[in-house]
Amino acid sequence: MSKRNKDDTLDLTLIEEAILNALIFRERYGLEIMNAIAQASNGERTIGFSSLYPTLRKLEQRGFVSSRWGDEAPEETTGARRRYYKITGSGLQALEKKQQFLNTLQQLQPVLGEL
Fewest C-beta in 10 Å: which of 13, 27, 82, 90? Predict the structure, then answer.
């Protein structure tokens, strides 16, 4: 069995793909990412904070997203500042490569006798 290659762009998980897709057209903070994923799936796919932030850190380590602290004042109730994430050129390339792979896979013709 081969070891997982962290730089293999075809090895994106479903949630990594969802996060990257949520960041294509604009930067978002964590709750916005969670809401975008839930809204796009009509509530069938949700992600919690305990999964979101470790996944964002992994994507940032791989160079697929970048982040910055927001300029607004910290939330009154939690005292937390918002951290904004945006997709990088490498993240876009990873999504495109994965989509191209899936499209090619769907179009493969069965070899005679495989059905």
Answer: 13
Model's pTM, two decimal places? 0.82
Tell me which of 113 and 9 has the higher pLDDT. Answer: 9
Burial 4-37 (b: 16+ CB within 10 A, else e): eeeeebeebeeebebbbbbbeeebbbbebbbebb
* CATH 1.10.10.10 is the classification of domain 9-107: yes
> Length of the chain, please?
115
* Residue type present at position 28: R
In this predicted structure, the answer to whether residue 97 has a pLDDT above a threshold of 50 is yes
CA distances from 102 to 11, 41, 88, 108, 114 (A): 12, 20, 21, 10, 20
